Amino acid sequence: MPGCPALSCIYCGTVLMAARKIDPEKLRRWRTRFYPKIFTGEKVKTPCTQWVRIDPKILEKKVTADPRKWPGIEVMPQGDIAEYPPIKPRYPPGQNWGNMDEEIAWTWDSWKEAVDEWEAVTDRIAIMSQLEKVTYPVRPIDTTACLLPYQQYITKTHTIKGLPKIYETVDVDNHLGDVKSIVEDVILQEYEYLERQEHHNKKQAHYVLGQILYSILGCIGARYQHLGRCQLDENVRVEAFWRRTGYGESKPRGTSKWADDIKLQFKNNMNYQLRIEKPLPEFLPHNDGVCLSGEYPVFTYRPATVGQFSRNMKPVWLSGHHVGDPCEFGLLSLMVIPSNTLFHMKMNRSEKYWNDIWLGASIVNGFSSLTSQAYYQGFSLMHELTYPWTGQFVLTDGQKMSFSCYQLNTMQTWKSDNAIPHRNICWYTEPQKLYETIENGKVQGLNEDCLKQMLKFFSLKPSDRGVDLRPYLVKDSDETVPPATVHEFIEDIRNKPVETIDDTIIYDESR
Question: Which end of the chain is less congested by CB atoms within 10 angstroms, N or C?
Answer without folding.
Answer: C
